[in-house]
Amino acid sequence: MSRITADEVRELAILARLALSEQEVARMTVDLDAILDYVDAMRELDTTGVEPMTHAVPFDCPLRADQTAPSLPIDEALANAPRREASFFQVPRIVPGPGGSSTVEDES
Amino acid sequence: MIDARGASLVSIVDGVRSGAFSARAVTEQFLDRVARLDGALGCFLKVDDTGARRRADAVDAARKAGRDPGPLAGAPIGIKDIFCMRGVETTCASKILRGFVPPYESTVTARLEAAGAVALGKLNMDEFAMGSSTENSSVKPTRNPWSPAHVPGGSSGGSAAAVAASLCAGATGTDTGGSIRQPAALCGVVGMKPTYGRVSRYGVIAFASSLDHPGPFGRTVEDAAALLEVISGLDPLDATSIPAPVGAYRQAARAGREGLAGVRLGVPTEYFQPGMDAEIEASVRAALDELARAGAKIVPVSLPHTKYAIATYYLICTAEASSNLARYDGVKYGYRTANARSLEELYTKTRGEGFGAEPKRRIMLGAYVLRSGYYEAYYGKALRARRKIADDFSAAFAACDAIVTPTSPVPAFKFGERIGDPLQMYLADILTVAPNLAGVPALSQPCGFTKSGLPIGLQIIGPALGEEICFRVGGAYESRTDWHTRFAPEAA
């Protein structure tokens, strides 16, 4: 019995914001199925009453003084942006424009 | 002129500090080696010759002015391309970060430069440190200096191969499930994964934050110790960094030469299972005999949850990876798809086109195990198993001072041999992932060669903040053997 179907892979890809080709979906289904089959051996391990371990070493979240410090100048922070306008990162239109359309070409 | 191929990092530093030769001269010699030899090996993604000369000249100027040029003065090193260096392109060997020039510097590279080390450039790796062969680099393969048909291991394959080929005297790496120790073993060099939090992760591109450990590579145990002394220590920029004082690692490595009287070394039966290469088992057993002759007492120990380590590791690291890699969206830096009609398409197409097969697989698996309804059965279960695996180490260290095992169950494999089967690639880390889950330090050093001439690695695992015992045992073994004095073949 397979543990994951191609439809579940397509649904996961939407959640993970990954555009996958049909060829990638087919391959991913086979790969994830084999990995999920392998990790299933964990089920036999009794973990009743075991505290989950989220960090390798115990630590308390350290606090620092709440003081203003210099941060990156805007030009440096934006220097790697694929598209920028003035002091903003530029993305395709999110809210509907005057014509009512919410999809606008991300022209380069 | 120094013997660039044979010189240890600490001997180069001694020569620069005493004025026997200049940092600039050493840098030119190593840059020349990289120019002549790296075309066939593929260790470097970027050679920063301008930056290297500037750093070397600063060391020489400091010395001339009577200032201390630093504990790593003139040491020629390579930097895994996962460490951000201000003004130097840093890509994690991924298409999605192509062209990214960090506006800030990682703590590790900042400390290395402040100590006088001369970074020569950025080294190849598996994309986002995901892999065990460096075949997942989106840029190019790196070849094992001992045999060009074989992989160097991974994910820090460029680092291990560059040190093995003496293209640099030391290097940085990161180890999330074995990514320093496994390539060190496969390339015949020393690699050290310190205690979690011992070395700051600030400026290290995140893969699985609770498992990522930056650390050093060297030709010798003392070289790795000298690098670790500089890069370790509390960093206010990493909330998980440990406030404990940094140990005397170099001194511990040298102390090993005096023997191991009173040291108890644990050998876990679970690390010698069927499937292990016979030559590797024989070499590691012989190394244990040598350590006993050095005065150590060999004691059997048990790490009973070892068989769950790979499954636990992949459930946790993929969950963390899927969250960490959410930041690559085509908006702030790196690759952006050319044809998005909406914000949604900007995200999905950028990520679909920018990530390679392995990051996609891990993002998907991570999304699966974190999904509502599956979370407790997979991720929650793995967090509990992680505690049991860590408890195994605590119990074992009640009966011994360090644990000795092979680093990898197999020597370097050939290109293409495992890349088509992700699960087989994951199993390459079967002997290295547990120390990451437990957060304890572990060192790999050469302990022999197969009949076909491929290096074999010995793993020495210490308790939390027990870096010194790892270096002491490693120093003891190295002083009684000559594996570290052999060199990979080199074109004339």
Structure commentary:
The complex is a heterodimer of chains A (108) and B (492). In chain A, 30% of the residues lie in helices and 4% in strands. The mean pLDDT of chain A is 88. With 108 residues, chain A is mostly helical. The longest helix of chain A has 18 residues, at 22-39. Chain A has a domain at 6-44: Orthogonal Bundle (Histone, subunit A), CATH 1.10.20. Chain A has helices spanning 6-15, 22-39, 74-77, and strands spanning 84-85, 88-89. Chain B is an alpha/beta fold. Chain B has a single domain (9-304, 392-485), classed as Amidase signature (AS) domain (Amidase signature (AS) enzymes, Alpha-Beta Complex). Helix content of chain B is 39%, strand content 12%. Chain B is built from 16 helices and eleven strands. Chain B has an eleven-stranded mixed sheet with strand order 1-3-2-4-6-5-10-11-9-7-8, sandwiched between helices. The longest helix of chain B is centred in the C-terminal third of the chain and has 22 residues, at 375-396. Chain B is globular, with a radius of gyration of 21 Å. Chain B starts with 8 loop residues before the first helix and ends in a 13-residue tail after the last helix. The relative contact order of chain B is 0.14. The model of chain B has no long low-confidence stretch (mean pLDDT 97). The chains are: A mainly alpha (108), B alpha/beta (492). The interface between A and B is large, with 58 and 77 residues.
